[in-house]
Amino acid sequence: MKHHLISTGDLTRDDALLILDTAEELAQVSQRSIKKLPTLRGRTVVNLFFEDSTRTRISFEAAAKRLSADVINFSAKGSSVSKGESLKDTALTLEAMGADAVVIRHSASGAPHRLATWVRGSVINAGDGTHEHPTQALLDAFSIRRRLGRLEGLKIAIVGDVLHSRVARSNVLLLHTLGAEVTLVAPPTLLPVAVETWPCQVSYDLDAVLPKSDVVMMLRVQLERMNAAYFPSAREYSRRYGLDRDRFARLHDDAVVMHPGPMNRGMEISAEVADSPRSTIVEQVTNGVTVRMAVLYLLLGGSEPAIGGAE
Amino acid sequence: MSDARNQARAVLEGPDIHRALTRIAHEILERTRGAENIVLIGIPTRGATLAHRIAGRIAQFEEIKVPVGAIDVTMYRDDLRLRPARPLGRTELPQDGVDGRTVVLVDDVLYSGRTVRAALDALNDVGRPRAVQLATLVDRGHRELPIRADYVGKNLPTSKSEKVKVFLEETDGRDAVVLIKEDDR
């Protein structure tokens, strides 16, 4: 995977476990009174956000700051990008400023991959189009492991708008690597082409999958991307694919419910389920900072990255 | 050219290590007036094992239960950029923390002193001990920082080309301190 984190598909099982184990140790730091480590002193992390995402940006910012790195936030709005600067020129500018890592969020799938060819520092994909969002998948895996103690052999259902979801793709690849069995549940219109080549099962019927699942991960219905008639009405979608009280009751007692946020309460998940003690939604935010610290440390902490081989 | 490239010689065997730790436990009791208000903090992985062994002996001699913990110093090292990022060790602090207590840091080998410096920094971030002391199973010399140990199992004169390796029952299946001479051809 070179020295970038662009896809969870680039991570070997050992890489992924190293990230999760490192995060496990770093979780303690968030509980102390001094929440800071000197490890990345003098290193610069640039948050390059071409798409609005307050929670991911803040999470990366907190992670970098807890490791004592200098953080530069660069958002496309009101910057040179709105004046028409290309991604390449932006990259060269960052390069000239000496960025050791660039965290990039972009609406175009593949933007981080392109960026990686132009900068010397590490590129961390914080979500590109409908492609991938690797740190979200890592924090989901971390949250599951903390709750259920393992990942190997777990049955995980990922439900909803898979078509537009970078979280789903990253999770399928990562959870498969870590030995979990993933089932995607969605209406046929919200499944991507070639989903049968993904290392997972596919189902159109949520009620059949629920009782067998250890983890149910609800995806946000991306209303802003609903530019075609993917389903007849919000109400019908919610009826068939929303996690409400009745469906929740059919899960077995240890099963947990996840959501990457932000939620559409009442649409894909009911408020009651989202706030139940078996939902990990708040933990996922806390774990996000920890997992991102682990990724930054493993990519930037040493003379060369500890995850993935050379070149 | 040479018949054996690496010559390994055991300088301490099981019983020697046993005796050294017993003596260190006695010295700690003596110097801290009966291990009053002390905490043993080991540096992973073998320092942490040694800390537990010393605590066991103190419990045996004086029937005092001394809190034991471990502190990982990886994130505080000054040589992080010389090698790929390393996996982290376990940090386990005693429930009551280290504030106001005498901390005895425990490590297996004292060499340049850089690990101990990192440990002092790490300790600083988790609390404010009343005092910090240092116990080490082997002191092999060649300090690069003004650091010395309060309790030493064995002073072992070495040359910089040699390696000292500590094996412990709990992690390695046997107790021994081995001096490895590397022929510099």
UniProtKB/TrEMBL annotation, chain A:
<keyword id="KW-0808">Transferase</keyword>
<feature type="binding site">
    <location>
        <position position="55"/>
    </location>
    <ligand>
        <name>carbamoyl phosphate</name>
    </ligand>
</feature>
<comment type="subunit">
    <text>Heterododecamer (2C3:3R2) of six catalytic PyrB chains organized as two trimers (C3), and six regulatory PyrI chains organized as three dimers (R2).</text>
</comment>
<dbReference type="Pfam" id="PF02729">
    <property type="entry name" value="OTCace_N"/>
</dbReference>
<feature type="binding site">
    <location>
        <position position="261"/>
    </location>
    <ligand>
        <name>carbamoyl phosphate</name>
    </ligand>
</feature>
<feature type="binding site">
    <location>
        <position position="105"/>
    </location>
    <ligand>
        <name>carbamoyl phosphate</name>
    </ligand>
</feature>
<dbReference type="InterPro" id="IPR002082">
    <property type="entry name" value="Asp_carbamoyltransf"/>
</dbReference>
<dbReference type="GO" id="GO:0004070">
    <property type="term" value="F:aspartate carbamoyltransferase activity"/>
</dbReference>
<feature type="domain" description="Aspartate/ornithine carbamoyltransferase carbamoyl-P binding">
    <location>
        <begin position="4"/>
        <end position="145"/>
    </location>
</feature>
<dbReference type="GO" id="GO:0044205">
    <property type="term" value="P:'de novo' UMP biosynthetic process"/>
</dbReference>
<keyword id="KW-0665">Pyrimidine biosynthesis</keyword>
<feature type="binding site">
    <location>
        <position position="262"/>
    </location>
    <ligand>
        <name>carbamoyl phosphate</name>
    </ligand>
</feature>
<comment type="similarity">
    <text>Belongs to the aspartate/ornithine carbamoyltransferase superfamily. ATCase family.</text>
</comment>
<feature type="binding site">
    <location>
        <position position="83"/>
    </location>
    <ligand>
        <name>L-aspartate</name>
    </ligand>
</feature>
<dbReference type="InterPro" id="IPR036901">
    <property type="entry name" value="Asp/Orn_carbamoylTrfase_sf"/>
</dbReference>
<dbReference type="Pfam" id="PF00185">
    <property type="entry name" value="OTCace"/>
</dbReference>
<comment type="pathway">
    <text>Pyrimidine metabolism; UMP biosynthesis via de novo pathway; (S)-dihydroorotate from bicarbonate: step 2/3.</text>
</comment>
<dbReference type="GO" id="GO:0005829">
    <property type="term" value="C:cytosol"/>
</dbReference>
<feature type="binding site">
    <location>
        <position position="136"/>
    </location>
    <ligand>
        <name>carbamoyl phosphate</name>
    </ligand>
</feature>
<feature type="domain" description="Aspartate/ornithine carbamoyltransferase Asp/Orn-binding">
    <location>
        <begin position="152"/>
        <end position="299"/>
    </location>
</feature>
<dbReference type="InterPro" id="IPR006131">
    <property type="entry name" value="Asp_carbamoyltransf_Asp/Orn-bd"/>
</dbReference>
<dbReference type="GO" id="GO:0006520">
    <property type="term" value="P:amino acid metabolic process"/>
</dbReference>
From TrEMBL, chain B:
<comment type="function">
    <text>Regulates the transcription of the pyrimidine nucleotide (pyr) operon in response to exogenous pyrimidines.</text>
</comment>
<comment type="function">
    <text>Also displays a weak uracil phosphoribosyltransferase activity which is not physiologically significant.</text>
</comment>
<feature type="domain" description="Phosphoribosyltransferase">
    <location>
        <begin position="10"/>
        <end position="157"/>
    </location>
</feature>
<keyword id="KW-0328">Glycosyltransferase</keyword>
<keyword id="KW-0808">Transferase</keyword>
<dbReference type="InterPro" id="IPR023050">
    <property type="entry name" value="PyrR"/>
</dbReference>
<dbReference type="InterPro" id="IPR029057">
    <property type="entry name" value="PRTase-like"/>
</dbReference>
<feature type="short sequence motif" description="PRPP-binding">
    <location>
        <begin position="103"/>
        <end position="115"/>
    </location>
</feature>
<dbReference type="GO" id="GO:0004845">
    <property type="term" value="F:uracil phosphoribosyltransferase activity"/>
</dbReference>
<dbReference type="GO" id="GO:0006355">
    <property type="term" value="P:regulation of DNA-templated transcription"/>
</dbReference>
<protein>
    <recommendedName>
        <fullName>Bifunctional protein PyrR</fullName>
        <ecNumber>2.4.2.9</ecNumber>
    </recommendedName>
</protein>
<keyword id="KW-0805">Transcription regulation</keyword>
<dbReference type="Pfam" id="PF00156">
    <property type="entry name" value="Pribosyltran"/>
</dbReference>
<dbReference type="InterPro" id="IPR000836">
    <property type="entry name" value="PRTase_dom"/>
</dbReference>
<dbReference type="InterPro" id="IPR050137">
    <property type="entry name" value="PyrR_bifunctional"/>
</dbReference>
<keyword id="KW-0804">Transcription</keyword>
<comment type="similarity">
    <text>Belongs to the purine/pyrimidine phosphoribosyltransferase family. PyrR subfamily.</text>
</comment>
